[in-house]
Amino acid sequence: MSTSQSSPYRVLIVEDDFRIAQIHQQLVEQHPRFAVVQSCRSGADALGWLAANPQAVDLVFLDVYLPDVEGLSLLWELRRHHRQLDIVMLTAAKEVDTVEEALRAGVFDFLIKPIQVERLQNTLERFLSRRLMSAQQREFSQEQLDQALAGLASQSPIPRRVLPKGVDALSLQTMIQALERAHGPLTASEIAEQTGTSRSTARRYLEYLVGSGMAVVAQSYGEVGRPQRLYQKTSAPS
After folding, report:
1. Do both 134 and 109 map to the same domain?
2. Distance of CA 233 to the CA centre of its chain
3. Where does a domain end: 89, 115, 141?
4. Is the peptide bond before 114 cis (omega within 30 degrees of 0)?
5. Dist. CA 199–CA 170, nearest whole Å
6. Mean pLDDT by 10-residue block, N- to C-terminus, for the chain (238 residues)?
7. Is 111 helix (H, G, I), strand (E, B) or coil?
8. Are 97 and 49 within one domain?
9. Whole-angstrom Cα distance, residue 235 to residue 220?
10. pTM to 2 decimal places
11. DSSP letter string, 11-79
């Protein structure tokens, strides 16, 4: 199941409350690289729709509590029949047993309701970064595999410190790689297009790189009254 650079990643929402499902759809579709293709209100509906459309989804947002089946049971059912899917569990519960079983089933992420907008966007960015990395690699080194599994940018010159809120290590590595591949300075819009992120997201990461000494920025006045910030990777981190 693959998505081209320009096509959005396809999301299935499994949530029995249609109002909450609509809210989650609005939050997901704030990101330009994701589109909700279907919402299902029960486990049976979800399994039936996926059986009829086995290649139509990349990412599933699955509620733990459904009217006809426990979300964890449905999670294992999806793992048996749709192993290609990435799954994010959604729940108002915080029980350790529930979280541990979801992790054993290989969920991509686990979000506690009510979902924080920034936390959801971080999940989408990490998903996007991992898909982009997989598309660019034929083989993984141990360091790259560690990065994909744990979100650690171990091959990059990212300082070993806690990243600020809204900056994810794996997404940051994607931005650095885009700057490294560039033959000259790029705008935030150009970086966004190359990495498949929104312009505001690219700008946030690029400004972090500038502030950390890993990139430099210059103003361009190609159009009267429309100065642009051009970003370029530094030769070595400060």
Report:
1. no
2. 23
3. 115
4. yes
5. 17
6. 69 95 94 95 96 95 92 90 92 73 85 87 86 68 62 41 69 83 88 86 88 82 69 69
7. strand
8. yes
9. 21
10. 0.62
11. EEEE-S-HHHHHHHHHHHTTSTTEEEEEEESSHHHHHHHHHH-TTS-SEEEEESB-SSSBHHHHHHHHH
